[in-house]
Amino acid sequence: MKQRFLDAMALVQDDGRPDIFLTMTCNPKWKEIDDELLPRQSAQDQPDLVTRVFHAKLEDLKLLLLQRHIIDVVGSYVYVIEFQKGGLPHAHFLLIMTPRYKMSNPNDYDKQVCVEIPDPIRFPEMHDLIKSHMMYSPYGILREKSPCMQVVPKICRFRYPRLLNEKSSQGEDSYPLYRRINNGIEVTVRNTTLDNRWVAPYNPKLLMMFNCHINVEVCSIIKFVKYLFKYVYKGHDKQVIHIDNDQENIVINEIRKFQDARYVSPPKSLW
User: Fold this and answer.
1) Domain ranges of the chain
2) N-term to C-term CA, the chain
3) Which of 137, 166, 183, 187 would bridge with 131, disulfide CB 3.0–4.6 Å?
């Protein structure tokens, strides 16, 4: 992992900072999965099918990004595959554009990233996809016990709900402040009414093509490059377990009692 991180940092020295941080998550309700399930089966019953379909979607995404240039022209890139605790795979991409297509101002951000709920009458399909995949809720201040709520007083570490903005601008951290106008359009997710403040950044073309949570962020300043690459190459999840012996009057060896183990989910093992 350390060697790959150093290799990735070498790309930054040669080609400059990353421009796009893209995350694609497997959708267990993809038609390609549903059509192959047996009666009364769900996606978790067929981890081999989930893994195979996600791999095909991933190859299609790479084709669109790297050869067909759906998000400008990519000069170099790095990506890794991770698996959620529930087992579903997802991919993290860092894309470095060629010098001609570097994203340098808010107008460039607006061409590739959107954070607004579309009109349900003009764009009904896109509206449903945003509601299904790109709404951050009900978490944050709507549920104080959610894992994202940290410190005292409780604050969402992902900073939701975001502020409404009439136009995009450069933020103080690694991500811009995207345009989020108050257009009055709302959606209901799990009995909670949400507006544009709760939308995760997305690219409309990719969302329509892949029908899954596909988050697209602009990396706008250089000081967070190291953080982004370390996030991508942070390594696999681990857990500490212990084994109890049923025998009594045994000398406890604390060194041998605890074992450093790695959990591998069924989709990950198949991958």
Assistant:
1) 2-232
2) 18
3) 187
Distance of CA 242 to CAs 22, 195, 236, 249, 254, Å?
38, 47, 20, 18, 9
Q: Is-contact 89 82, C-beta < 8 A? A: yes
Report the amino acid identity of residue 138: P
Q: Is 220 exposed, middle or buried (0-12, 13-18, 19+ CB in 10 A)?
A: buried
Parallel, antiparallel or unpaired: strands 149-150 and 155-156: antiparallel
| CB distance 178 to 109 below 8 Å | yes
What are the C-alpha distances in Å from 245 to residues 226, 240, 241, 255, 262?
Answer: 45, 17, 13, 14, 21
Task: Give tens-digit pLDDT for 173-232.
Answer: 667 888 988 888 888 888 888 888 889 999 999 999 999 999 998 886 666 677 777 777
Distance CA 226, CA 167 (A): 28
Contact 6, 233 (CB under 8 A): no
